[in-house]
Amino acid sequence: MSKLVRGHRDKVQQFMTITGSSEKLALQALKSCDWHLEGAFDVFYSQPQVKSYADTRLVEELYKRYKGKCYNSVGFCSSHPLLKSLYPYVDMILADGITLLCNDLQVDPQDVVMLVLSWHMKAATMCEFSKQEFIGGLQALGIDSLEKFRDRMQFMRSELKDDQKFREIYIFAFGWAKEKGQKSLALDTAIGMWQLLFAEKQWPLVDHWCQFLQKVTDSVAKHQLIHSCMNFDSLCQRSEVKPELLRHRHMLALPQPQAKARHNKAISRDTWSQLLEFARMVDPTLSNYDAEGAWPYLIDEFVEYLNENGIIRKGQLNDWSQKY
């Protein structure tokens, strides 16, 4: 690389930093695109990556380092057949093991790269890796040591810059982050995931979107409380029952109002998926927003919220509008 002019050297270094590739691959990609970085990225991500060999025995050793352990009062270890039947989760990597893994990798457990790692492992649930998920994921990544693991983290982080991979990771995140047995994603969890993901793929409206959802839920809860209290007082008057005799208002089966946005503090899979399409297709100033488009009602009401609160004015996004 010493023979290259400074501009080319800088591009090679930048390419290697973003993609986690070798100098040889960086040179090949850049030269094939006449030293245009964007074109080189397209070439790099469109090609199947060569995976290095991972020693299965060493991968197994890594798994044993992080998997959960359980001992009973007699001293049987989790490998005992009886304990395996009683504690089905001991042969998995759980929260403590993931914390240890993050310490070894020198990354924060809330770093978005851990989501990318979970995507590679096809993990079914947040903060858990089954033996099959962990070993299969590391073999696919060509990792069989902590040194290789650390080296691959930069590559995994760079995958978020590829539009197609980002979309796959985004869609994966919904099922990964939701509670077991639930069809929807809890609002607080969804907001945290959006802030994490859109910190990588900049979407200027993400903070406004999260504020909108919180305001909608707070408004619905307030209306429901007022409506319940009004119905309660009316019921007492009609039945000539003193209010103090009915201390537990929550026991009354009172009808609830139909709020403008029937939001129940949970995000559906459709809303989750469509928001990414909205962020990708609709300009932040809403200049190309189609009111007749088939967007989920929550997104349509978000657009109304932006306009009604002066966040979008004359086709411009107002920076000062964060106060809303």
Automatic annotation (TrEMBL):
InterPro entries: DCN-prot (IPR014764), DCN1-like_PONY (IPR042460), PONY_dom (IPR005176), UBA-like_sf (IPR009060). GO terms for molecular function: cullin family protein binding; ubiquitin conjugating enzyme binding; ubiquitin-like protein binding. It holds the Pfam family UBA_4. One of its GO terms (biological process) is protein neddylation. GO terms for cellular component: ubiquitin ligase complex. It comes from the Eukaryota. Keywords: Ubl conjugation pathway. Coiled coil: none annotated. Residues 54-307 form the DCUN1 domain. Neddylation of cullins play an essential role in the regulation of SCF-type complexes activity. This is Defective in cullin neddylation protein. It comes from Rhododendron griersonianum. The lineage of its organism: Eukaryota, Viridiplantae, Streptophyta, Embryophyta, Tracheophyta.
